[in-house]
Task: structure prediction
Amino acid sequence: MSRRRVVITGLGCITALGETAGVFFEALCQGKSGIATIESFDTSAYPVHFGGEVKQFDVTKYIEIRESKRMDRFSQFAVAAASQAVTDSGLDFSKEDPYRMGAIVATGIGGIKEIEEQHLVLLKKAPMRISPFTVPRLMANAAAGNIAIRYGLRGPNFCVVSACASSNHAIGEAFCNIVSGRSDVVITGGTEAAMTPLGLASFCAARSLSLRNDNPAAASRPFDRDRDGFVLAEGAGILVLEEYEHAKKRGAVIYAEVLGYGATDDGNHITAPLPDGAGAAKAMEFALKDAQLSPEKVDYVNAHGTGTELNDIAESSAIRAVLGPHAYKVMVSSTKGAHGHLLGASAAIEMVVCAEVIKNLVVPPTLNLENVDERCNAKMDFVPLKAKERKVGVAMSNSFGFGGHNACVVVGKVS
Result:
């Protein structure tokens, strides 16, 4: 008996580089950058003054103002992106069995803005002056819950939290949920809004961030020998995953098919990956095995590629270990050079990229990659600086996170 097929029928995103999937992908391919000076709070006391901040976000375009005030920014981003994705999919949930419809939406940090704001109220005023909406706003599962409420979804609904691998885990679990027959449609992806005083200060204290205050657009430099850290960003990516026959029956436009999912853990260190990328390699191997594909079938790898030394070297090593000689023929790009690192939402944004790559026959570049770090192997095609037109039949998206989490999702053109 053949297993149920899963396809992507809707895309939505909120990023510093664009507020819809189409605008975002076009900007990526044009080599634009969304990295700029932070405007939402005073960064003068910080060593870092820039990031991938979503500026001029008008929540009322998507959510009634009273309802939006009951959500932290990370939930607002998710509901906005979900609104785009559902509209894009053409689904009418009033005609569907609500118990066959679910929402699995990830975040790495959740409502940190709400925590900061209410903690100030606690310190400056009194305990009972805290907002009664504090918990519903800050809880990590609020994004998934609000999406389910908006569309009346009564199937599986939960949040995945696994640092920067969160969204790939969410997409993978949504995929498995549909394959198993428990659901026909799952709204999935990830959201993050950690561009706050505490969020920025925490990563500054960890010395994880680039310090290129004089040239923010050039700060995120995946696989480049002159990189000096990642760039913090915010936003959301949401996709509609749907059982193939269900989508076909209603005449849905299909972007790509989800073919396989693999997940592992390094079991090694809370922040550092295994130096040889062995854990990441196994996740990639498992995803290809799940997809029943040989390494030679992969045309494009959307790399996790944060622009940190440990990650870039480990991941490039993992790609070579899994793909073998084919690693020198496949295209590998990290779009974080343009949009920054959205932590738990990154993989969702990058899955939007993979779907658009398959649809549009163009691979976006690794921005700012001027001199490939020899330890990442300069013979590999990291698609430096400029997009490349290419027919992509199979794309692989990597995502790794603190805690040793590794997740890989393989998607392909529907045949």
